[in-house]
UniProtKB/TrEMBL annotation, chains A, B:
<dbReference type="InterPro" id="IPR012967">
    <property type="entry name" value="COMT_dimerisation"/>
</dbReference>
<protein>
    <recommendedName>
        <fullName>O-methyltransferase domain-containing protein</fullName>
    </recommendedName>
</protein>
<dbReference type="Pfam" id="PF08100">
    <property type="entry name" value="Dimerisation"/>
</dbReference>
<feature type="domain" description="O-methyltransferase C-terminal">
    <location>
        <begin position="102"/>
        <end position="292"/>
    </location>
</feature>
<dbReference type="InterPro" id="IPR036390">
    <property type="entry name" value="WH_DNA-bd_sf"/>
</dbReference>
<keyword id="KW-0489">Methyltransferase</keyword>
<dbReference type="InterPro" id="IPR001077">
    <property type="entry name" value="COMT_C"/>
</dbReference>
<dbReference type="InterPro" id="IPR016461">
    <property type="entry name" value="COMT-like"/>
</dbReference>
<feature type="domain" description="O-methyltransferase dimerisation">
    <location>
        <begin position="7"/>
        <end position="71"/>
    </location>
</feature>
<dbReference type="InterPro" id="IPR029063">
    <property type="entry name" value="SAM-dependent_MTases_sf"/>
</dbReference>
<dbReference type="Pfam" id="PF00891">
    <property type="entry name" value="Methyltransf_2"/>
</dbReference>
<dbReference type="InterPro" id="IPR036388">
    <property type="entry name" value="WH-like_DNA-bd_sf"/>
</dbReference>
<keyword id="KW-0808">Transferase</keyword>
<keyword id="KW-0949">S-adenosyl-L-methionine</keyword>
Length: 342, 342
């Protein structure tokens, strides 16, 4: 029950600058901290009880001073990462989730409509609202920066293959794929909505891969380009309910020749939903249903495997991240590799 | 970090009626639940992962059905209590806490101003806004219903005493005090803002205690009525910072004759702030600073004791609730009894 209060108290300690102040000057009283950050000492004392309770800060009862506890051992850049996630949750999710019941009933993002007067999904809203874009893109850059290299290490791309990066946005995934998998004749094509073309081609030029990467505009629900050996689907299937996932995978199956491959990267729920090390089911239903799509959400890797097979593919490999070997990561991703065999 | 998402996901399961439906018909599929509550089965599945993870519900993978888990053992009235607290947090606190940083900087309730255009504190806002009043009063009735009888069991009121219920609101505390402590000549007087008088006197008449209870209108920060043997201060000191608590207690000390007593009931933080059984420091800073007063918050019982002594009283008894013997209670209250000895 105290979840939202804990979140806002801890975030407020950061936003007021209390943590920064204590990183610079240890052993300050509530009065000294209050003077520095512009808050009444009584309020500072109230707010700091929780980080003291959690061991993040220490309080010395004799001198009445505060100093860094567990936060002392956290490098500056890790604290910045933490703060980026907290800020994303605050800006993109916190108030929007108030309308989760209405969003589930209507299948729309009621919070986005109430708070921004915006009808559509978050991916459309970030184009118009810089506060949403900054908070969301900063977090997503961290997610893709961590997971896309891991994905490419586990995915086999034959030399000289023609690769389609499905829903590849502005081409950064294609660029990374070309660089990690470069071979004579390898070509990576970003497929996304036509309005992404200009920025995508600029990115290809800026990264010097314009001779090996290209762009095709279109809609995955209408027609998927043919003539490719390998299709990559990253950070995409989790945005949809089963009916749409099946439409996408069926479209990919139709577009591939026999022997063609699909490689999927997606956040996954643990096979044992009760696994306490995963925060996925604590987080994603609210993220997708109330804040980003009004539908969708990840599945277990085994569920995705079943769906991929239902669409006619033969699954050749699945890989799931093991959270117990990834300190600080709360969400596991999975990979499915499959081949069109008939 | 997943605190707000967990809160809204679980609350949404209640608000959509999923829990009610499963209390009536166990072993329903997501499709059946979705049809009953008016939501897409995919969304129902996403939302129910978390209560399954927590053991509140059970999911049978073979039949794909859900049934009550731990919730099965919870009596209907306990679930209602839980829902009242969840609803109070949603309506009175959730969106308001978004502005906790600004509230701490300004010492005002920025959320109340942004969401309701209201300047003032929650206790004033509930008079104008029925949604806030209903959510807040329902929860407070539970808190006082649980704690005031406990308080009176531990407080000694001499036969025939003249008792002042400081900040006694609309007289319900005076009525309970008279009933529990009745003796020949006992008189309990509610002291609060003059605008409470009409409703207070109505309450006295409705409960048949109008000959033993009375009302005095005034402001605790201006002048406290004299001529009383015992002063009760319940659910009040936690609303203020130290400077105001000292003003109130000093005023009470001045108003009492030597030998006069004060009895205080207040939520308290545990002496060991790190005590994991207490949720007080996880909750109250946000409740008071962002949602009700823009200041204030409970203290440790030992801190209140020091403050009471600083104001000239001799403390004769302190009692703290032991949360380990009170299953389901997250917040401990304390009692301080003190006498004016000089």
């Amino acid at each position: 029950m105290a979840g939202p209060t804990r979140f806002m108290i801890l975030l407020t300690c950061f936003e007021l600058g209390v943590i920064d102040v204590l990183r610079e000057n240890s052993r300050m009283t509530a009065a000294e901290i209050g003077k520095t950050v512009g808050a009444k000492p009584d309020a500072v004392e109230q707010l700091l009880h929780l980080p003291v309770k959690e061991g993040f800060l220490r309080h010395d009862a004799v001198s009445g001073t505060y100093s860094l506890g567990a936060f002392a051992g956290v490098p500056e850049n890790h604290l910045q990462q933490l703060l980026q996630v907290l800020n994303m949750i605050k800006v993109v999710m916190y108030r929007q989730m108030f309308y989760l019941p209405e969003s589930v009933r209507t299948g729309t993002l009621v919070g986005l409509e109430k708070l921004y007067g915006f009808e559509g999904n978050l991916y459309e809203a970030v184009a118009e609202h810089p506060d949403l874009r900054t908070a969301w893109a900063t977090m997503m850059d961290g997610v893709t920066g961590q997971n896309d290299p891991w994905f490419l290490r586990h995915v086999d791309i034959p030399p000289g293959a023609q690769v389609l990066d499905l829903a590849g946005n502005t081409g950064l995934g294609a660029i990374l794929t070309y660089r990690r998998k470069a071979s004579p004749g390898l070509r990576v094509t970003t497929f996304d909505l036509p309005e992404k073309e200009t920025e995508c081609l600029e990115n290809f030029r800026a990264h010097g891969v314009e001779e090996h990467c290209s762009f095709i505009g279109g809609d995955v629900f209408e027609s998927i380009p043919r003539g490719f050996d390998v299709v990559l689907i990253k950070h995409f299937l989790d945005m949809f309910d089963k009916d749409d996932v099946v439409r996408i995978l069926t479209g990919v199956h139709e577009a591939l020749d026999v022997g063609g491959q699909v490689n999927i990267l997606v956040p996954v729920y643990p096979e044992d939903i009760g696994d306490p090390s995963s925060a996925g089911v604590d987080f994603f239903p609210a993220y997708f249903l109330a804040c980003t799509m009004g539908r969708g959400g990840p599945q277990k890797l085994s569920t995705y495997r079943t769906w991929v097979e239902e669409c006619g593919f033969t699954v050749t490999r699945t890989v799931a991240q093991d959270l117990t070997t990834m300190p600080g990561t709360l969400i596991a991703h999975g990979i499915l590799c499959a081949t069109k065999t008939a």
